[in-house]
Structure formats: structure tokens, C-alpha cells
User: Fold these one by one.
Assistant:
Number 1:
Amino acid sequence: MAILANVEVKIWVNGRTAREYRDEDIADNSHPNTISRYIEGISGAPFAIDIRYFKRFKFGEANYLHCDISCDGELREAVALFKETNARYEGRQTVHSKMSIREEDSWKEFDLCFGDIVTRPDPAQCQKVKEDFGSIKVKIYRHIALPEDIEPYSNPKCKNDAISEKMLKGRALSIRTNLSNGIPSSAPAFFRMRKYDEAPVAVFCFKYRSRKDLQDLLIIHRSPTPIPLEERPESELSLEEARELVRRHRAGQQSIKIEGQNQQGIKIEGQKQPLLKRERSASSENTLPETKRQETCESDDEVQFVRAKSRTMDAEIEVVDLT
């Protein structure tokens, strides 16, 4: 929890308190009135700033806490937490999740949310970003509220233009703060005040990053690759995992059986087929050249033709008596 000077600030994301991670670059004791934390932001998810002070907070002559809220280095809203006069209460709390903006003659209310960053290579076509881009900062002041109302005013609507790729080079940052579609609303109340503190009594900085960004920064560990069920000991398997393992085994056996049936009657590559000897007639032996199969280890189908030897028939000799 981020607690400083008896003031606590939390960030809610999707209706839940965001888990905080220590910012090693800024030690808590290096800036006595500043605390910095990393949190996980989710693109498209709404977020809210939860601010409260405890009973032990020292107001001095001030009668309210002036809370300046900045997103990505731009001042967005000022929230007032008045001093609690009832001794039964332990303090006061406010959850800020919306922003009121004046557009021409009407007011609209926007929900705070996260969104993806759009980048472009040409810096001339991109918006300029502040040093605190990628963070939500809350500065706490002690001020004195005066019984005098003033004309309502609003800060300009935050830009959502593309960011230069050069500005994000080397930074693990893929999301930004954004505003949802606005809905008509009434004008908020404004009052005049007098400063009691020139410098803030407490500063809360929340550096939001996506889960992948936090993993790239080694702030959180990457999810380990799960061990396959086949390689895990049987004693460690749950009932559902054991059933799944049996189902996979049966499916594998069935696949092998079907594959074996499909291969019946099909020549298996590399297996020699029996040779069929064709009988030759006597007449063909005398007229056709003789062929001889060349026996080699490379191929059984190579044939070599050999010139046929001339054959002579034994002629019948007739004996004539000349005496």
C-alpha cells in the first residue's frame, strides 16, 4: 500500500485494487515526501484514483486537502477532501473515476480508462509527450477553502494522438491513459481557496504498464511453461488431469489402429516386391536377344541387353555309297 504522511492513495483497475510493485529506481528514503510504485494497467479497462486521509493527519490551519491529479504529465483534475470535524470518523475518502470537461456551452463527464498507444515514424505528425508520460501522479496540498464560489472552468481534454516511435525507443510502454465517450452532465462546483502549503506534503506516483511491459522490465516473472501431463508423476495429477491423460491415451491408440488398417495392401516404401518370372517360348529363344538382369545393390529394375550368340542347328548328314 502507498501510504505517506497519513494519506493513502490506491489505483483501481476494472473495479479491483491494482497490485503495487516497488520502483527500484526511486527508493522510498531518497525522496521523503514522494512514493513511487509500478502497477499493471489493462488496455480498455476503466481505472479510478482512491484517496483517503487518516485521523492522525495534521491539517494545521488548513481546512481541506487539495489533490492535483495528473495523467501522463498533464494536469487533469483537482479533488477536495475537507477536514472531518466529527471525532467519530477516522478520516475521509474519495474515489475519483471521472473527469468533467466543458465543451462550448455544455459539460460532459468522461470515464478514466487505459488504451493502446498508436505510434508513427514521423515526429512531426505526433503529439509531444511529457517526462511523466506513462504515470498517474497525485500531489497532496493543504489549503484553506474560502466561502466564495467562482465560475466553473475545466482543463482541456487530453489528447490521444499518435506517439513518435523515437520517443518510445528503449521504453517498455505500450498503453496510455485515455477517456471514454462523454455523456452530458451538470457543471461541477468551484470555490475560491488560499494556499497553505507551497510545496506538496505528499506525492504519489504510479507508473502503469501492461503485464508484458512489467515482464520485460523484470518486475514480475514470466509464467513458466507448464509440464505436459505425460511427463508428470501420477501422484501429482488431479482427478480431472488423470481423466484427461486416459482420454489422450485412448485417442492415440485408436489413431494407431486406424492408420494400420489404412496401410494394409499398400506398398511400404523400401520393401522389395516379389519378382514374377515370365516363361519364354522356344521360338522366342531363337529369335529374340537374350536379356540378363544386372544384379546391383542400387536397383533391381535395371536391365542390361547382351548381344545374342549365333546358334547353328545340327544338320542331318546323308551318306551316299559310291562303290
Number 2:
Amino acid sequence: MPSPAESAEEAAASPPADAQISATQSATYWSQIPATLDGMLGGFARIAPHDEADSRAFIARLLAPRPPSQSPSRAADCGAGIGRVARKVLAPYFAPVDVVEPDARFLETYRRGGQVRGEVVCSRLQEWTPARGAYGLVWNQWCLGHLTEAEVVAYLRRCWAGVGPGGWVVVKENVGREDVYDGVDSSVTRAEQTWARVFERAGLRVVCEAGENWAVELGLFPVRMWALVEEEGA
């Protein structure tokens, strides 16, 4: 994962970030990554406890106003990798938890870990369409940078169609001062204003958001979380 300063220098002399995304290059990159915690987090396995604690706190904020009887049940972890978020973040609050991931190796590692209480779906996000109203929460973390902006907009629209009454689509991503392309894994770190445009195009609005300070302290891009619902009148 490049530092913000390094990425900004590369971006200055490059074509628009979104135009450089290659699904083939992304798939090739991930096919060479070990199905381990350190592999999933780009060599930063040490951030996992901080990340998971902040994500659980975010979900607790969403659920806090509701009695348990009104809390949504089923969740999906999209771009799930080996299922770290499914197990450590979503499972304490939702059951069952489905995982959606394009790399079959990562899914096999998830299965071998046991306690699989949901569907295991091998699919690219660009092609995944959830059943209508099936989920209380669809969680997307550190995966949407591999999709072009148009693909993200279409994907988020499908995600929302898969969310039942009172549910949310959550996006958790690194953000930069501008859109920055990473040629290593063929992904884009988007600026907050870009995400705002993406959500608007998808017909969604932010109802809860949070940031994480530990990423900046480690010299990484800041991390933002957004809980999304349909824009009124969309």
C-alpha cells in the first residue's frame, strides 16, 4: 500500500485514475497473494484489531436506537477475502452472514476456518446481484477501489435493492485528497468528494459516517465509513 505522498507524485503524470483500472490486472494480483491475514491486509496485519474494533463500534451505533426485536438479521460481507470481517465484525451482530468473494482460494480458507453460518458465493462484485430485500446490512470494505466509478454506482444500486426495510449499505474505504491509482493491484483510492458523487449517482444518502485515526498515524491513507440508505424520492 503506497503512502499518500508517493501516490500523489505518481498521479501527477498519469491518466485519470478511474481509466487505469483493469479487472484482469486486479485478478492477477490477488491470485498471487497468500490466503492469510497479512496477505489480505497488504502486509499490515497489525491493523486488524484497530480496524475490527472501529467497525464493530460503527455497527453498534447503527443498531443502538432499536430494540433487539427490530434489528436486521442477515448480512453480507462483500469482497470478503478469507472472511475476516464476516467473522470478527458482522457475526457478533448478524446471523446468518453470507460472504461474496471472487477468489475461490480465499473462500476455501474461509470454509476451513469453520463456523460458516451463511452462503458462500464465488462471484465478482460487478456480477453479483443480491436477492431483493434479503439483507439487513451489506458491508463493502477495501474492495470497491477495484471497480470503475460506473461499476460502483451500478453495484451500489443492486446492493440497495438487496436491503430490506430498516437496513443499510456500508462502504468502508481509504480516502485521499484526490483520486489516486495504485498500479500494484490496479485499484483507485478515491477522494471524499468522489465518494459523495458516487453515492449521489447511486441514489443513496449518508445517514452515519465515521473515520479512523490509526491509519493516518501509521502513514496510511485515512479510512472512512459510510452507512447509506436510499435518497428520498430516488
Number 3:
Amino acid sequence: MPQDAGMKFDKGSAYEASKDRTGSASRHWFTTPQPIKRLFDKVPLHTYPPNELPHRIAGSRDENTLYIFATPAGARDGTPSFNPGCLKWQTYLRFIGVAFVTVASNNHASPSGALPFLLPSSSSPLPHSEPVLPISSNRIQRWARELTPKKTSSKAPAEANDETSTGTNNEKMIVDAPDNADMRYEAYMSLLDHRIRDAYLYSLYLSPPNFASIAAPFYINPCSANFLVRLTLGHQLRAAAESELLKQSPVIDVEMIYRESGKAFQALSALLDSRDYFFDQMKPGLFDASVFAYTHVLLGGELEWKDTRMREQLEKYHNLVEHGERIVERYFT
């Protein structure tokens, strides 16, 4: 299913989301018969390894290829993805100067079952003579570090959390964030991973106007023309979003979700202040890409938001709006 900041759907999501808010369920409908239970106790479920790439993809190794949620035309032109999880890494790779092309895809085509994933070119200089294998999103940053020379600031620790791209004599380098940004980085990243992500999940999947105008045409309809399949996919998406939100609270309090996302945007605006990029860096880094992944999807691109509460929250902070516009102008035009 779409990787909006890491949301996955599993087989139990619909059941878990259908429970009432106290956690009770109609057990007599779903209790496993004892003979079947004993059978599964004796023969445990087997977890299969990730799917292999289709041969037509595995043979295309001339360029680094990032598989993302996008329209075919958008992928061909390299325009920003309409999915925050994909756009984050698409933007980050542009920041550090890694050459790549984008391909419109979906989770079913991914070996890990989630987008984005990156297929390095056959000529990529990999350490230890490793075979060229698909790289999932949680390994893209590490792959980029191995691929790109890294210049560490004299103020930076050995293991920093943020990165920016700079260059001397056309050499692309990754510069770590300064010491005093480390603890703040984790704190501010949690705003994106929780408060803003939660509001985004609700706005996209559980707000009926946005589900009809964005989730259905961009995530469901391209998968199948069959009405029943689309209906099932829609139910799965909404159930998975509910399940994610119920991990944070026993009830889905819509007003609280939006109140917290508004505070998060305010905090990010204060952090950025009048600077071009976060953490007082000369060039944008992974944190800038993470913020841009949400701000651009909310403000720019091709999505038609009907429920505009998150957009209106964001538009109050002109420096965040200008931050997104700056990235589009410098890295996507």
C-alpha cells in the first residue's frame, strides 16, 4: 500500500481497525476452531524472502533508478512524487548530486512490498564487490554515503544524523550536521514522524473529500479497473490508516490531531527562522528533504485537496512555504 511516511497494511489491519474504541470485539465470530489452532501450532507459518525483481527490470542497469509513486509523465519528467515517503528520498538524492531516473511504480513491484526502492546501475562503485541488488528506502542514505565522498565538518561528530551536499572542484560531498544540532534533530524529526504524519494520514485516507479526490484516483484506481477490487483496496487503506492512528491514542480525536500538526508547523517555522535551510546549513540535507516531502505535497504538485485544514495551517508560515519554493526552483527546474 502507499508508503505515506511508512504506513503498511497487514492482514489483521481491517479486523483491528473494526474493533470498538475500548478494544473489545465480537469474539464468537472470529475465534479459531481448536483443531485448526492445534494444526497451526504444529506447523508454524513460514515467512518467505522478498520477491525477486522481474527480469525486465533486473536487466535495466544502465542508470540508477528510483521506483516511486508518480504518474508516468511525472516520472519521465522527474517531477516531485505525490507521495511524501517517495519524495523525501527523491529530493535527498538530488541534494547530494546522485544521478538517477525515476520510474512510476507501486508496492506490488517492490521486492520489499513498499516504495520507494532504488536499483543501482551495474556500474555503481559498491564496496566489497557486492552484487547489485535493490535498495529499500531505509538503506538509501547508507548507499549514498558509500557512493559519495564524505567531508566531515570540524564541528561534526563521527555519526551525525543530518547531511548536506557541497562540492569543491565539482566533487560531490556529504557534510554532516554540526554538534549542536544532534539532539534537536531527533526532536524535530519526531514532529514529522508523528504529529505531521498523523494529520496527513487522517487527511488523506479518513477525510472523505480527500479520499475521493486524491487517494482513490492516485493510489487505488491505477491498480485495477474492477469495482470490487477498488472497493477492497479502499477499505484496506482506510483500515490501515485507522490502525496507525490508534497506536498513538485509544480514540481518533480529529481536533487534537490537527491541533498537534499546527503546533508542529509552528515549531518548524521557528527552527528555520530566516535561514534558507534547516540547522543553519549552507546546503539542504535530509531534514530539509523530509520537511519538503510534506510541504510540497500539501502546497504544490497535482493533488486537489478538498479538506484544506493542513494546507491552511502550513500557509500561515511563509518561511516554510518559501523553503519549499526554493527547493523546487533549485533542484527540480
